[in-house]
Amino acid sequence: MAGRGQYRGRRPRVYIPLNENIRAKRLRVIDHNGDNLGEISKEEALNRAREVGLDLFVVSDKSDVPIAKITDYGKYKFEQNKREKGQKKKQTGGDYKEIKMRYNIDIGDYNTRLNHAKKFLGKGKRVKLNITLRGREIQHSHLAKELAERFLNDLMEEGAADGVPDKMSGRSVIVYIVPGPDKARIKKRDAERAEEEAGEEQDVADNAELQNS
Question: Which residue of 100, 119, 147, 185 is surrounded by the most CB atoms within 10 Å?
Answer without folding.
Answer: 147
